[in-house]
Amino acid sequence: MIPEIDMSIQNVKLTNQPTKTYALVGDKIVGMIDDVEAIRQAIYLTLSVERYEYLIYSWSYGVELKELIGKDVAFAYPEIKRRVVEALIQDDRILDVDNFTFQKEKEGVLVVFTVHTIYGDLLEEMGVMI
C-alpha cells in the first residue's frame, strides 16, 4: 500500500521567522540582538552594500547609489529616495519608508527618513556621495 500525502494548500502554515541575529560593532560580533535592534542593523547593512557589486549577495540585496555620483541634485534626490525604498522593502519586517529630507553637505548629501517596521517607526539617516 502506498501512503497518501495531503499536499493541498489548506494545510500550509506560514510563520514568521525569529529576528534574532548577531550584534555587529565594527567588524566584531559582540553578542545577540533581536527585534528593533536587529531591524536597525539590517537597515544599516542593506544600505551599506552596493547592489550587484558582490557575488556573495543576492541581486535583491543592497542599494544602487554608486551611479548617482556626479549627478545633479534635481535628478539624484528622487532617485535616492526611490532606491532606498526599493532596497528596504525587500525585508518583510519593513512596511514602508517615507518622510525623506535631504541636506546638502560638502561631500554629498545627508538623507534622513522614517522606516515603518512591524516593531514601530525608526528614524534613520545615511550619507550619500553625489
Automatic annotation (TrEMBL):
InterPro entries: Sheath_initiator. It comes from the Bacteria. SUPFAM superfamilies: gpW/gp25-like. This is Phage protein. The lineage of its organism: Bacteria, Bacillati, Bacillota, Clostridia, Lachnospirales.
